[in-house]
């Protein structure tokens, strides 16, 4: 990391300057797109090109191949039968590009005659090496061999076909070297993701996540009420069935293109797009059971008599020194006893519907999914009966009997339109709403599993009220289950991306997006319910309302030229990110019987928190290539952040990389 002598933005002027520059960038991008659209030739002579793409080894059709007229945004994707049709191709000589994840990219020349159709069929072979694959970066589509940093691709469609995946954390687990995914233990809880290990002992180690070019909130600890460990993750709000592919950028070099916060790596998600042709419908359904397969050790308690003749616990240390004489041994395991086991079999159901279609100019993808999962934790029947008698009721609230559940709805619409032969626009809109219940568990002395397996194996102990503990550690299990913690979420992720190629050698792009989430966390102990001997037994409630907002503005341009056999690719860009956190909450203590609101409490407290972070960065990257084998890349990024402080200057991130595709060299041996 290098520092430049003069700060880009310092002190209290950071926020105002960033906002002014970002506004100017947005205005410039809008004007550029408008001017670009106005300057295209008024319906110049055009023709049509069509064909079929097949696998060179099997002759089977290949769907989802991106077919693009080089130097323009005119293109489409192949349908399920491998066929494609592109209308409105400018007359004259052109080059078609064929790209798809897992296949060698292909290019072929074509001559378009005005008012006529050309047929170009193509065969594609699977990439022998992952270096041949095409990936999406900030500067556009590139082959992996051209990149100066390490990337990994996940073909989501094929992975979903191989094994059922419930959430994005499960999709990432075990799919990429160097990516560690530590799963949560309860329904609806998130995972901790680390790329190439832990980067800091005190700071955030989560990678950045982008969806269709927009930075989104992916926090793993997205809850303001602790339950002992696992909490919901905003990463799992994303429906895996809506994803086309995932690219993982590893290493600190990612910061030169993605900014200061990208030192922990980047997860770049591309969602599905529509394909020209007849509308294709996909209906999915999933039903199953949820089980907790772990086994837990037995607990032991030794009875004995000490040297004074008093009978009690005879520990091994006392037995070894002769301080007591053991006469009996109790073995117990509340998990293996159906009467005391706080687990049962859960269930899961999921239903999804997708539609994809369009014509050569406009394509659409629409998806919806509903899922419902009931976790494995359940109040033992003996405790249900005890609480019914104690409360004088015939029913126990479902949120207490089954404290772990998730209900979620995902909706998405993606539209892609070729406004002119050189101007393309893509609009993406996603909505997520969910409700979930979280149990008191894991790293929680009052949690249900600690209470289940942390006892003394004795079944004769009772609490201070005289209620039998039945082998549990400190509290009757029904009291542990009586604490209810819920989270309700409404989230929108919207983006607008434009691509304008005013010249065959120049490609410009602009992406604008917003990720907004409204979250309500609620935790409550009703009066005379919950764990004994704690203040919450008198009635306690916490309610926090949080808004998480992430704005993205990303502008860039890439110029590609060849000079004396040396390829040159120059990319420049600017990025603006604004992250807002706003939370208002309250707590109430000493609730009257039946009350469920803070206003009814005898003791009331409120709090409000707000935080705003702005990042403004500029980058430039220059790449030279020779014979499509050797690639030399140099780049730098200048970043300023409102959290740097008044005395800290902007930060400069340089990078240099060299890659050589040795297998393409003439002197390398070739094998069949």
Distance between the termini: 46 Å
* Strand order of the biggest β-sheet: 1-33-32-31-30-29-28-27-26-25-24-23-19
From the spread of the alpha carbons, the general shape counts as: elongated
Beta-strand content estimate: over 45%
Alpha plus pi helix count = 9
Oligomer: single chain
Structural class: mainly beta
Radius of gyration: 30 Å
Averaged pLDDT, please?
A: 85
Mind summarizing the main beta sheet? 13 strands, antiparallel
Would you identify the regions where 5 or more consecutive residues have pLDDT less than 50? 1-43
Total number of beta strands: 33
Overall helicity: 10-25%
Structure description:
The chain is mainly beta. Helices cover 11% and strands 47% of the residues. It is built from nine helices and 33 strands. The strands form seven sheets. A 13-stranded antiparallel β-sheet has the order 1-33-32-31-30-29-28-27-26-25-24-23-19. β29 (540-563) and β30 form a beta hairpin. The longest helix has 27 residues, at 13-39. It is elongated, with a radius of gyration of 30 Å. Residues 1-43 have low confidence and may be disordered.
Helix/strand layout:
Layout: E1 2-3, H1 13-39, E2 46-55, E3 66-69, E4 75-77, E5 83-90, E6 92-99, E7 106-112, E8 117-119, E9 122-124, E10 134-137, E11 140-143, E12 151-155, H2 156-162, H3 168-172, E13 179-182, E14 192-195, E15 208-211, E16 214-216, E17 243-249, H4 255-258, E18 266-271, E19 277-290, E20 299-306, E21 311-313, H5 316-321, E22 324-332, E23 346-358, E24 362-374, H6 381-391, H7 398-401, E25 405-420, E26 423-438, H8 448-453, H9 477-481, E27 484-503, E28 506-525, E29 540-563, E30 566-589, E31 603-626, E32 630-641, E33 651-660
Parallel strand pairs: 2-8, 2-9, 15-18
Antiparallel strand pairs: 1-33, 2-5, 3-4, 3-6, 6-7, 10-11, 12-17, 13-14, 15-16, 17-18, 19-23, 20-21, 20-22, 23-24, 24-25, 25-26, 26-27, 27-28, 28-29, 29-30, 30-31, 31-32, 32-33
């Amino acid at each position: 990391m290098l520092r430049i002598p003069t700060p880009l933005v310092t002190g209290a002027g950071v926020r105002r300057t960033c906002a002014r520059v970002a506004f100017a960038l947005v205005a410039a991008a809008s004007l550029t797109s408008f001017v670009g659209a106005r300057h295209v030739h008024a319906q110049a002579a055009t023709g049509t090109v069509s064909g079929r793409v097949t696998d060179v080894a099997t002759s089977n059709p290949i769907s989802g191949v991106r077919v693009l007229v080089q130097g323009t945004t005119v293109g489409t994707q192949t349908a399920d039968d491998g066929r494609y049709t592109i209308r409105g191709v400018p007359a004259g000589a052109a080059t078609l590009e064929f790209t798809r994840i897992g296949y060698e990219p292909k290019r072929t020349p074509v001559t378009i005659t005005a008012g006529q159709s050309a047929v170009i069929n193509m065969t594609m072979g699977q990439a022998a090496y992952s270096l041949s694959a095409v990936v999406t970066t900030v500067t556009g589509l590139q082959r992996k061999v051209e990149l100066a940093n390490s990337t990994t691709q996940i073909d989501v469609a094929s992975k979903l076909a191989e094994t059922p995946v419930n959430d994005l954390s499960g999709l990432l687990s075990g799919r990429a070297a160097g990516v560690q995914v530590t799963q949560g233990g309860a329904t609806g809880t998130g995972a901790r993701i680390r790329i190439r290990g832990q980067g800091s002992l005190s700071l955030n180690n989560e990678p950045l996540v982008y969806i269709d070019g927009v930075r989104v909130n992916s926090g793993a600890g997205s809850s303001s009420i602790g339950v002992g460990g696992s909490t919901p993750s905003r990463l799992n709000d994303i429906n895996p069935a809506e994803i086309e592919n995932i690219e993982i950028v590893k290493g600190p070099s990612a910061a030169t293109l993605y900014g200061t916060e990208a030192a922990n790596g980047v997860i770049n998600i591309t969602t599905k797009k529509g394909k020209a042709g007849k509308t294709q419908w996909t209906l999915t359904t999933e039903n199953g059971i949820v089980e907790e397969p772990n086994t837990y050790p037995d607990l032991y308690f030794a009875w004995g008599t000490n040297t004074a003749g008093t009978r009690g616990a005879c520990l091994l240390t006392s037995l070894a020194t002769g301080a007591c004489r053991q006469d009996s041994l109790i073995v117990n395991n509340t998990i293996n006893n159906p009467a005391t086991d706080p687990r049962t079999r859960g269930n899961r159901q999921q239903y999804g519907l997708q539609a994809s279609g369009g014509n050569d100019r406009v394509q659409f993808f629409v998806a919806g999914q509903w899922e419902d999962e009931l976790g494995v934790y359940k109040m033992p029947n003996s405790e249900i009966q005890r609480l019914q008698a104690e409360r004088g009721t015939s029913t126990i609230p479902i949120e207490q009997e089954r404290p772990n559940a998730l209900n979620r709805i995902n909706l998405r619409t993606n539209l892609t339109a070729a406004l002119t032969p050189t101007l393309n626009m893509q609009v993406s809109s996603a909505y997520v709403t969910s409700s979930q219940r979280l149990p008191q568990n894991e790293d929680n002395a009052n949690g249900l599993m600690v209470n289940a397996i942390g006892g003394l194996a004795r079944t004769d102990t009772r609490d201070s009220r005289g209620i039998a503990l039945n082998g549990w550690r400190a509290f009757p299990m029904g009291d542990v289950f009586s604490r209810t913690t819920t989270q309700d979420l409404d989230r929108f992720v919207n983006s607008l991306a434009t691509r304008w190629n005013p010249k065959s050698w120049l490609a410009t792009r602009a992406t604008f997006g917003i990720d907004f989430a409204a979250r309500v966390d609620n935790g409550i102990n009703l009066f005379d319910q919950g764990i004994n001997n704690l203040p919450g037994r008198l009635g306690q409630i916490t309610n926090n309302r949080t808004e998480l907002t992430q704005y993205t503005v990303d502008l860039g341009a890439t110029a590609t030229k060849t000079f004396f056999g040396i390829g040159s690719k120059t990319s420049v860009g600017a990025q603006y990110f604004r992250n807002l956190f706003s939370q208002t909450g309250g707590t109430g203590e000493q609730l009257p019987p039946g009350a469920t609101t803070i206003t009814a409490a005898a003791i009331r407290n409120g709090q409000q928190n707000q935080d705003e972070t702005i990042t403004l960065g500029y980058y430039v990257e220059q790449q030279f290539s020779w014979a499509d084998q050797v690639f030399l890349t140099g780049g730098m990024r200048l970043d300023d952040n409102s959290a740097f402080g008044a005395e800290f200057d902007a930060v400069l991130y340089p990078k240099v990389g060299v890659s050589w595709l040795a297998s393409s060299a003439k002197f390398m041996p070739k094998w069949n």
